[in-house]
Each structure stands twice: as C-alpha cells, then as structure tokens.
Structures
1.
Amino acid sequence: YAKHSRSHATQLYESGMDERRLRRQKLAVALQTAIEQDTLTLHYQPIYSLATGKIESIEALLRWQSVEHGTVYPLEIIAVAEQHGLAHRLNEWVLHTACSQLHFWHQRGYKPLKVNVNISPSIFMDGELANTVRRVLQQTQLSAAALVLEITEDTSLWDTAGSAETLEQLRALGIEIALDDFGTGYSSFSHLRQLPLNKLKIDKSFVADMVTDVRALNLVKTIISLAHSLDMRVVAEGIEDAAQQDKLAQLGCDLGQGYWLARPMSATAMSEELMAKAARHLSVAKAQ
Ligand code: C2E
Ligand code: MG
Ligand code: MG
Ligand code: MG
C-alpha cells in the first residue's frame, strides 16, 4: 500500500510538472506576441520623499491581461521570459515604455521626476545592458539622470565578476542603481562595499512587522544607518499604514512607497495624480 501511494504521489507530481511546463510554453508563445503587439502594460507607483511628501520617482511595474490566460503576475511573466529566451526583448520593452512615459511627463512639466525600472538578474550576465540602456535613452530622449535601475540580490548576480563592471558602465552613463528587496537575498557587506549602489530598498517584510516586532524595527534602523554610512539613500517599500510611515520618517528613512501612500496605477491615473498634486502645491504656494 505504501509503495502504491508513493508511486501515485510521484505520478501526481510528474503530471503537475507537465501541466506547469505546458502552461509555461503556452504563456511563452502568448508573451512573445504580446511584446510584439505592444499589449503588455506598465503600472506606476509613486515613491515619495518622507520628509517633504513630494513624489521623487515612479516605479514601473509590469502588468499583463492576456486574452487566453487572464491576469498573469509579474514574477511568472519574468520566469517565463527567462526560461524561453524572451528576457532581453521583455526587458527592452519595459525600459523603452517606462522611459518614453517619463519623457512625456517631463514634457508636461513634471521635472525632476525619476522612473525606477526593475531589471531581471539574468540581464546582467551578458554585458549588453549598458548598450541597451544607452540606446533606449537615445530613442526616448530621456535624460540619464532620471533613470533608476532596480536589481535584486540574486546569487547569480554576485557570482559574476562582470556585475561590478556592468554597474560601473551604467553609473558612467549617469543613471542610478537601487538594490531591491534588501535583507531577503544574498548580499554581504563586501558586496555593499564593492558595488556602486545609490539606493537600498528595505524589503516590505521588515516594514510590515516593524511596528509590532522590536527585532524587525531594530533591523530597519540598522539598514537605514548602514545605507547612510555608505552614502546611499534608503527607500522603504510596502508601507501600509500611517504608523509605519511616521516611524520610518522619524528614523530618517529618505523615501517610501506602499499602498498607504498610493497603489500602483495606470499611466492615465498617474497623470491625473501628478496634475492634482501640482495643483495642490500651487494653491498652497498662493495661500502663503
Ligand atoms: P518589487 O520590485 O519589489 O515591487 C514591489 C511589489 O510590491 C509590487 O508587486 C507592488 O505592486 C507591491 N506593493 C507595492 N506597495 C505595496 C504594499 O503596500 N504592500 C504590499 N503587500 N505590496 C506592495 P508586483 O507589481 O506584483 O511585482 C512583483 C515583483 O515582480 C516586483 O517586486 C519585481 O521584482 C517584479 N517585477 C515587476 N515588474 C517588473 C518588470 O518590469 N521587470 C522585472 N524584471 N521585474 C518586475
Ligand atoms: Mg522593484
Ligand atoms: Mg521590492
Ligand atoms: Mg519584491
């Protein structure tokens, strides 16, 4: 009986694998078409200065409403792209779309606003990233100083001697680099010392617990002072209530984003938000 149930479990496991592989293959075909036909979208989530309340930057987040597959979440899109050789095209599509959107906002007078773009780890491996970024900046007419690339602490990133060089090339173009989800990955103090980073993003799991768990709070404090001592600015992600926002501001955290401040939204909704915010500042200035 035991033997039978084990082989049954194995069969279930294997058929689960097949289904997953099949789904991924279908997704890959649909994704390639979506990139070509420009039917992916980006949503935008503001990143605020916690001291002034001004929007300093906007993070671009991938969204895909597929006709055949429904909502596909970004982490699955990225995984499919990585497994099926679409990572470069997807990456370039995201960069291009985000940079031209920001250029549009700059033309509307929302300067100096920046855009944060997430880059998947594998893109760092082939040394093409700096060329791609240079080309996209040229095509979209966006100034390099307005672009922030977010990278995660993936082991493959740190294993390559070339990653520091790639980051140096990117910095030489004048763009900024942020380390995303800090505290959950593999980075060590020597990485922080050797890599040319401008910003650390505190992972939302620490932010979620910091008001109720003194150990999470102490870690947040430590990350902030660590970043500042290395001349980096700190961004807290996943701020979901006023208590977290207040505490982070009090601890000297530079920037923050999260549902409490604003949810990711369409480009159109973001335009309206920027307009409304500009109007509020104008009326405050008039009243003074
Ligand atoms: P991330 O870069 O760490 O982005 C933050 C994620 O947290 C986003 O999830 C965002 O919608 C979500 N978030 C924002 N505020 C809150 C909050 O207050 N509470 C909670 N619980 N979540 C919040 P999303 O959009 O589902 O993206 C997930 C991940 O997928 C991103 O994590 C990033 O690693 C990846 N990703 C998204 N778009 C892209 C892209 O264009 N390229 C690449 N390579 N990766 C992307
Ligand atoms: Mg990010
Ligand atoms: Mg993050
Ligand atoms: Mg994340």
2.
Amino acid sequence: LRGSSSNSRGALVVLEGLDRCGKTTQSSRLVQYLEGLGHSAELWRFPDRTTSVGQMISSYLSNESQLDDHTIHLLFSANRWEKRSLMETKLKGGTTLILDRYSYSGVAFSCAKGLGFEWCKAPEVGLLTPDLVLYLDISPERAAERGGYGCERYEQIEFQNKVAKCYQLLVDSKWQIIDACRPMEDIEKELQEIVLDCVKRCQNGEPLSHLWS
Ligand code: DGP
Ligand code: NA
Ligand code: NA
C-alpha cells in the first residue's frame, strides 16, 4: 500500500528570516498556490497571538509588559507546544502546513540576546521537524527600507544583525537559503517549485521526525 492515499501526509514547511524579510506575504501566496493545485494547505503563524500564552507574548512584543529573557523564551516555546498535537493530526490527515516562523526563530531571537545556544534549543526538543526550512535572506538594512520597522521590541537593525548571525548556527540540510532582495514575483516562483517538490516527497510517505534532527 506504500504511496497510496491512506499513507500520504502533508508537508511541514517553515519560512524563516529577519523581520520584514517578506515571509508573511510569501507564506500566504504559497498556501494559495498549493490550494490552486488541489492540495490541502494551511498557513500557521508563530507566535500564535490568539491563545492565552500568545496574548502574553503579544503584550511583551509591543512593550506593554516586561518579562525576563528566559521566561519569554519558554512562553514562545509553550506557544509552539500548545499547537503540536493539532499539527501532527493535520499533517497525518494530508494537510500541508506552511509555517510563518517556528523553533528557529525561538533560538535565533533569544540567542541574539545572549542566552546560551543549547539552552535555547532544549525546550524545542520533541516538536515536529520541518521537512523544509526556507530562509528568506536579506540584510536588516534592506529589510528596514521596506516601509521601515514598526515599534515592536525586536525591530532594530543592530539586534536584527545579531539574529542573522544566530540563524546561521541553525542551518542544516533541510534549509534552502533564498535571496530575498529580488522582486517578489521571482521569489514566489522559486518558492513554488521547491515547495511543490517537497509536498510530493512527503506524499510518498517520508516519516515525520522530531527536533532536533
Ligand atoms: P512576527 O509576528 O513574525 O512579526 O514575530 C514577532 C516578533 O517576535 C518578531 O520580531 C520575531 C519574534 N519571534 C518570533 N518567534 C520568536 C520566538 O520563538 N522567540 C523569540 N524570542 N522571538 C520570536
Ligand atoms: Na515583526
Ligand atoms: Na515578522
């Protein structure tokens, strides 16, 4: 029965990058593209600000509340854990999930504050490993030119430079680095090709695994 529809699962695809790298636009376009081809696909964002943990995160990001660096790190992680079982159910049911940020943001943003790399990775252990990580590569200066940063906590060039360095420590064979300085349509085309290929691989029964692998 290998390869039959009962076996086929959705792909777990993550878009990562600095603030204003364009990943939010690209992730929603990817979902539209996949749906247009008749695939089942959903866009998920982390942090998910709709849950009660997510509301604490949102208030922290907008500087309405202050939290210890370790505490907020664990809240971001908890926000992914509270979606884990639904994530697995969706994937096993054949739905592809396009994630706007995931555990890599968790590690990169906290590590950029000076928290230990291994300490940052630890609470993510056991979450599902993405099949593909698309890193939209752009300098903080170029990203800020795109309408400028807002006033959320992390939206400063100096800090974003540190985040970029921390992201580099996380690159592995699942990653594809995408030049995000090109026109939006060019990036869109490139992402479509890579993601469709990944979706097809997952349909053929590649098993899910856990971070950090
Ligand atoms: P976004 O909604 O994608 O604009 O993300 C909000 C901000 O939070 C952005 O600056 C990136 C940051 N962020 C996202 N996920 C995490 C995380 O897990 N940990 C930390 N420390 N920051 C994160
Ligand atoms: Na942001
Ligand atoms: Na963002």
